[in-house]
Amino acid sequence: MRRLPRETPPMAKVLITGIAGSLAQLAALELMRRGDSVIGVDYRSKPVDLPRGIVFSRASYNKSGIVDLYRRHRPDLVLHLGRVGNLRVRPNQRFDLNVVGSAKIQELSLEYGVKQLVVLSTYHIYGAHPYNHSPILEDEPVRALQTVPELADATQLDGQAVTFAYRHPQLSTIVLRPTNVIGPHINNTTCRYLRARTIPYVSGFNPMWQFLYETDMLRALLAALDSGTSGVFNLTGRGSLPIVEALKLTGGSLLPVPSPLIWPLRRLADGVRSAVPPYLVDFLKYPVIVSDERFRGAFAWEPRIGIPEAIRSTISRMPLTAGLG
Questions:
Q1: pLDDT tens for each residue of 286-309
Q2: pLDDT of amino acid 72
Q3: Residue 3 forms beta bridges with which residues?
Q4: What are the helix and strand counts (H, E) for the chain?
Q5: DSSP H helical segments within the chain, as ranges?
Q6: With CB atoms counted within 10 Å of each terminal CB, which end of the chain scores lower, N or C?
Q7: How far apart are CA 80 and CA 15, in angstroms?
Q8: Rounded to whole angstroms, how far apart are CA atoms 274 and 283?
Q9: Is the CB of residue 207 less than 8 Å from the CB of residue 243?
């Protein structure tokens, strides 16, 4: 890890990719609240409820539009939150956005003198495997490609970001690998799974899961963005919980499914297919517990929200009062 003095102006220009997503919009609000200006870009259309004050551009991350965006705005800081995890997006489009597009973001950040680049990856790249040991550290091999081809683009995005960070030390680059980010404003796969009326799980398996509440995630993003640091960091919340115990906190109806039937049931039942994407099946069987001691030590950061409170807030869509300050 490398720490450099920050030379960004008091009011920084921050480019955020994936601005149509809820986490990106929450980050934008916090940045504007502290006085930064935000340029948001997404391959999707402008959200009707996009917070006021964000300068929005629609562009694919691997096309000429993103070049024009850097040329016009010359951002000081870049939050690359635009990884496409939605498996309903065609594989070739996910590859173009996640792999080719992310490489373009890195190259342009270097070319235009960006002072800090933060790339949001995911702990899913470690893969859920019966031989995983616990906890998993940042320098350990990733196993996702052994069993889940749907995570190929996410794994390649992460690998090329890490390689880029070490090849170009003049650009401070942080790669974050958070666990399951949840919260009342988040609408990712994990949150949709927890909010389902009927929640399937694999009977006979009860792996430990980790969660990270949205405000703790935002505090980590801001700490990384302000750091002048390069490195690769796992990120998780307070403690862990067996998945069945976590699901009981949702108030939903739990549906135990024998392991041999989970794949046929996914094909036949729309509710199961939408609640459990292919890559999630192994995570319902085998634990993937990461250590984020490296991040906590480097940034004096600690998560504030425990798992029961985080899950209840996610289900009720009522934000917790614990703030970012």
A1: 999 999 999 999 999 999 999 999
A2: 96
A3: 229
A4: 14, 14
A5: 22-33, 64-73, 91-95, 101-111, 144-147, 152-167, 189-195, 214-225, 243-248, 259-268, 270-275, 280-283, 293-299, 307-316
A6: C
A7: 8
A8: 16
A9: yes
CA distances from 295 to 79, 112, 298 (A): 17, 27, 5
Nearest one of 193, 218, 172, 179 to 319, comparing CA atoms:
218
- Helix, strand, coil percentages (3-state) for the chain, rounded to 5, are 40, 20, 40
Beta bridge partners of 174: 118, 231
Environment class of 276 (CB within 10 Å of its CB; exposed 0-12, middle 13-18, buried 19+): buried
Bond from prior residue into 135 cis (ω within 30 degrees of 0): yes
Neighbours of 91 (CB within 10 A): 12
For residue 174, the SS3 value is: strand
The two tokens of residue 16 are 């955020």
Give yes or no for residue 270 having a pLDDT over 70.
no
- Which two three-digit tokens encode residue 189? 């796969």
CA distance 278 to 273: 8
**Residue with structure tokens 């392991």?**
259
Q: Which residue has tokens 């504030």?
A: 304
pLDDT per residue as tens digits for the range 112-143? 999 999 999 999 999 998 888 899 999 998 88
List the one residue out of 298, 122, 296, 299 whose CA is nearest residue 223: 299
- Two tokens at 154? 């996410």
Q: Which residues, 6 or more positions from 22, have their beta carbon under 8 angstroms from its beta carbon?
A: 185, 186, 187
Structure tokens at 314: 């996610």
| Residue 21, SS3 per DSSP | coil
| Separation of alpha carbons 165 and 158, rounded Å | 11
Residues, the chain? 325
Q: What is the largest CA-CA distance in the chain?
A: 58
Structure tokens at 283: 């995570």
Q: Which residue has the tokens 């235009």?
A: 112
CA 93 to chain centre: 19
Mean pLDDT (whole number) for 38-60? 95
pTM over 0.85: yes
